[in-house]
Amino acid sequence: MALGTLSTQTEAARAFFVFGDSLVDNGNNNYLATTARADSPPYGIDFPPTHRPTGRFSNGYNIPDIICQQLGTDLLLPYLSPQLTGQKLLVGANFASAGIGILNDTGIQFVNIIRMFQQFEYFKQYQQRLAAQIGAEQAKRRVSEALVLITVGGNDFVNNYYLVPFSARSRQYNLPDYVKYLISEFEKLLQKLYDLGARRVLVTGTGPLGCVPAELAMRSTNGGCSADLQRAAALYNPQLVQMIRGLNSKIGSDIFIAANTMLMHNDFISNPQAYGFITSKIACCGQGPNNGLGLCTVASNLCPNRDQYAFWDPFHPSEKANKIVVQQILSGSNEMMYPMNLSTALALDSMTMT
Predict the structure, then answer these.
(1) Which partner from 70, 211, 259, 298 sits 20 to 30 angstroms from 7, CA to CA?
(2) Residue 256: which of 267, 247, 264 has the closest Cα?
(3) Known PANTHER family for this protein (predicted)?
């Protein structure tokens, strides 16, 4: 119901802001000198209407796109896009950048990427631009009534702690202490988002990091998922929910909603056939074992039907898998969504918004 009512008020449809990494980047990295980009074929092969790459790490739509469709708003533009002006500013913006993590030293091999502190600087800049257009009071309200999505954390394991044997962070911390450190740093980021005016924030956990085709190809444990990375995800996700519970109670309101993306992915990773996938172990696009090595390029193996694969490339889910995840975010049980799912939050918000 809530979604129906929201999408009919397109004039007043709420703004949407996205922060995070390659799971949600809509093309900011296209504007940067970095290797962490998805701006060449076959990326975007199913993206309508052009079937061309956009900078999304997907064969088609990514999670923010599918949420936009559910909200009944236009797809977000990357913040660095020169087209993000005028009326388009009212829709919101995507600040995400592939390769980044909670920590500033995550993804250093990608050089020029927009780390979290810089994404927040851009959010401040965005608010100034919006205020110049619609006035400070209206801009503040637009931000406070917006939906915000933040997806970050996976790279702090994959592109930092476990990037190379004996990485600096793995020498500094054992895994449980590293997870605690990450959670405490993430809490600071969420507090900062609140201070910047965000009042309805969807926070995703990490997926089953050890089961992506890249890790099956490189660090598989007895032919199965990587035990190290699975242990990392199993420690991190419950502590994330705990941290969010604490933060909400400190603020005195359910601002932050935790999405247990590990559980959501586990369903189709352990039982791909139930979701119409033929495999969750092999990427559609890639090379080597599990199509899990290197990057997805024109020279890679490419599956003819992307909807049969849970993974598009060695690290990223296919559009179809993204749709399943968004469905769970919208209507998942309390086990998946704490303290409520997105449909419930939107219904509550539509009662309080005038």
Answers:
(1) 259
(2) 247
(3) GDSL LIPASE/ACYLHYDROLASE FAMILY PROTEIN (AFU_ORTHOLOGUE AFUA_4G14700), OS02G0617400 PROTEIN
